[in-house]
Amino acid sequence: MGIFSFKKAFLPCKNTECSPALYLKSRMLRRPAISFMLLLMAASAGYAAQREYVSGTILELRQQERDRVQLYIVNTAIVTPEPYYTIAIDVNGTRYEGEFLPHNPHELLPSFWKTDESVSLRLDKHFMYVKREDGSEVKFLILNKSPLHAERATH
């Protein structure tokens, strides 16, 4: 026949007309193993994407209001005040400014968050998660990221 015997590499095929290419043992075992490895790598990459907590100092914390348009009646806007919070945090010489929009008007930020207090936070590309005292997090949208001014960093 040739150098390589096909009958040893494939599952037994009694009929000479059956296609042995579909029954290759090594291919049949390799596909589930490769699929499992790809799934495992994708899952581990998702867990590795979560960043560690860093320490920061609150530079500013303000509660503000803006008008939210509810509806228009004959070209007149009907608005309601919408409270939101802004925060500026120094993390290793970088100033992060963020905004938090509460789910309801009665949701408050922790009272122990004050200017020049140290907080623990996690930074992502567009959000910062500031840790509360009970372990939960407040999600702030990052509005601006800039180097801290030299006069503020010396104080």
Mean pLDDT: 78
> What's the SSE pattern?
HHEEEEEEH
Low-confidence region ranges: none
- The helix count comes to 3
The separation of the N and C termini measures 87 Å
Tell me what portion of residues adopts beta-strand conformation.
35-45%
**Shape, principal axes of CA atoms:** extended
Strand order in the sheet with the most strands? 1-2-3-6-5-4
Helix content: 10-25%
How many E strands? 6
What is the domain total for the residues? 2
Helix- and strand-based class? alpha+beta
| Sheet with most strands | 6 strands, antiparallel, barrel
* CA gyration radius, whole angstroms: 30 Å
Write the layout of secondary structure elements.
Layout: H1 6-9, H2 25-48, E1 54-73, E2 76-91, E3 94-100, E4 118-123, E5 127-131, E6 137-147, H3 150-154
Antiparallel strand pairs: 1-2, 1-4, 2-3, 3-6, 4-5, 5-6
What is the gist of this entry?
The chain is α+β, with helices and mostly antiparallel strands and 155 residues long. It has three helices and six strands, in the order H-H-E-E-E-E-E-E-H. The chain has two domains: 17-48; 54-154, no CATH class.
